[in-house]
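Render Putative cell wall hydrolase in 3D.
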Amino acid sequence: MNKKAKVFFAVLVLSSLVPTFANAATYTVVKGDSLYTLGQLFGTTSGTLMTRNGLKSTVIYPGQKLEVPATVYTVQKGDSLYLIAKKYGITLSALRKANGKWDDMIYVGQKLIIPGSASVTANSAASANNSAISYTQSDLDLLARLITAEANNQPYTAKVAVGAVVINRVKDSRFPNTIRGVIYEKSYGYYQFTPVQNGMINKPASQEALKAAYDALNGVDPTNGALYFFDKTATNKWLWSKPIALRAGDMIYAY
């Protein structure tokens, strides 16, 4: 084999080692993403995403463009996010996450990422079944509104942690067993959460809060089980007596 042929063969072998996606789309990284969570969403692995995108580490940053296994769908007249998700056999949550689309407004000609080969679809459905609790779109919106009211100017981790506290209460027998029940619970005549008392719960949720709520609802818990949160300026001795699970921004999370 001559030198040129050897070089060509070596390139051919190396190329065959790089994973390829039968259907690929470009995903824009948002705050809170990791290669692990993206791998779960798109039915692949963080290692495959690294190799396919020529990454030398697992560090990714908001705004970064990544090639992911997915198809691109063009919205048609009469479409809705629900119908598109149903058409491709994926969850509505997966469709929202893949496109950073937390409202229901779409338009004809809009391009949407569908995380959907058959294997990806199955994986997405499995991930959905691993949600921390079952929830509706109304639950997602209400939780996001609480997060917005409680932690709008706080780091993303603090936002997810607020959502996680609500989820942890839903799963704890000492609290109501629904998201709405937990958020609107009264104790000794007072609501558990100040935004319910002062009406801030009725303000629209921010996009980042919606994403944080989605992460919390799907099992992300930076607190590892906290049931309470409060501001670092709080003077309530009972709250401060609780074991601290996490400090994030100006927020304290406790067991």
